[in-house]
Each structure stands twice: as structure tokens, then as C-alpha cells.
Design goal:
This protein has 195 residues and is an alpha+beta fold. The chain has a single domain (10-194), classed as Gcn5-related N-acetyltransferase (GNAT) (Aminopeptidase, 3-Layer(aba) Sandwich). The protein is built from five helices and eight strands. α3 (111-126) runs antiparallel to α5 (182-194).
């Protein structure tokens, strides 16, 4: 982990993001259904078991220039997925938000908008980022809609960006948010959370 990207707890109204720990594995396991990871490159839970989640958490916490959070639902105090800061570049004040997976019952709720609000706010106000990027498999229409709904700018498709575990050669859709865009993105997210 980068010294710039320090472990931190990000507290919201609906969710709390805290650095993922082995103690989260048992509660996360039932939510880690394989279809949630069909577009993921690289690190992901191999199956919905405590052991597989422990392995995923151990690997995630060894990654350089990354910080993985457990997504905790405040009301139940239960983890329902993970999300990460990736590819931190302190010398360029840039970071990526990604590798996010959320238990199906909590998709299309206020969970994802609040996750993004907390992470973007920390990125722009505490890390003083000049760029926060998000990317997804070009075929992942649900993820692309969610990123576009944030107000992130589409930057294009990186062709043949990586190879998925099933052998598919993935094209990646790239998006970013810059400091001048953050106030409007923040306003829109807060409005979504109030409705």
C-alpha cells in the first residue's frame, strides 16, 4: 500500500467503508456469487466460501498502491461486498475506484451511490486528486450506466486490455472525474441519496 493511500474508515448514512480484514470473510462469503465477477480482470474471490474470501482478502491486502474496503451496511452492521482504490499514483495525485462488488439484494439501492460519494469525496478533499478514474468491461452495460450516471466523462475504449479467466479478451471502457467536475458530481450524488 502506498504511504499516500493510508487505511481509513469512510462513514456514510447507509454504509461504512472500512479496510477489509479476515474477520469479514465469513459474512462476505454467501454474497460472493460467481456471476458478480464475470467481467472482473485479475483478483476476485474464486468461490463463495469463507476460505476463498480469506484468500481474496489476504491477496487484496498485499497489493501495492491499492486499498480494499469492506462495504458495511450500517443498519445491520454486516459486510455486503468490497470496493477498492486501485492504481494509486501519488506522484500524479491520481487513483482509480474499482473492483466493486455488491450483494444482489443491495444493488440498485443507495449503497453504490454512497460508496462512490465517500470514495470520491476522500479522493478529492483528502488525497487532493487531480484525476479519479473508473473502468469496466466494455460489454458491462450495467456498470457503464452506473458510471455514466455518476457524471464521469467517457474517455474511450482500450482495446484488448486484458484476458479474463475464461480466456475472453476484454476491451475496457475508461472514465474519469476531474476536480472541476467534482462539485457537480457531488451535488448529483447527494440528490440521489436524499430522494
Amino acid at each position: 500500500m502506498s504511504s499516500w493511500l493510508q487505511p481509513v474508515v469512510l462513514q456514510g448514512s447507509f454504509v461504512r467503508l472500512e479496510p477489509v480484514r479476515l474477520e469479514h470473510a465469513a459474512a462476505l462469503a454467501p454474497h460472493a456469487q460467481s456471476d458478480l465477477f464475470r467481467y472482473f480482470l485479475g483478483l476476485q474471490p474464486k468461490e463463495p466460501t469463507k476460505e476463498a474470501l480469506e484468500s481474496f482478502i489476504e491477496q487484496a491486502n498485499k497489493q501495492q498502491n491499492e486499498l480494499t474496503f469492506a462495504i458495511i451496511i450500517n443498519e445491520a452492521n454486516e459486510p455486503i461486498g468490497t470496493t477498492s482504490y486501485l492504481d494509486a499514483k501519488p506522484e500524479h495525485r491520481a487513483v482509480e475506484i474499482g473492483r466493486t462488488w455488491i450483494a444482489k439484494p443491495h444493488q440498485a439501492t443507495k449503497v453504490n451511490p454512497e460508496i462512490k460519494l465517500l470514495m470520491l469525496r476522500h479522493g478529492f478533499t483528502q488525497l487532493d486528486c487531480v484525476r479519479v478514474q473508473l473502468k469496466t468491461d466494455a460489454r458491462n452495460a450495467q456498470s457503464r450506466r452506473a458510471i455514466e450516471k455518476l457524471g464521469a466523462s467517457f474517455e474511450g475504449i482500450l482495446r484488448a486490455y486484458g484476458i479474463l479467466p475464461n480466456g475472453h479478451i476484454r476491451d475496457t471502457a475508461m472514465y474519469s472525474i476531474l476536480p472541476k467536475e467534482w462539485p457537480e458530481v457531488e451535488r448529483a450524488l447527494l440528490k440521489r441519496l436524499e430522494s
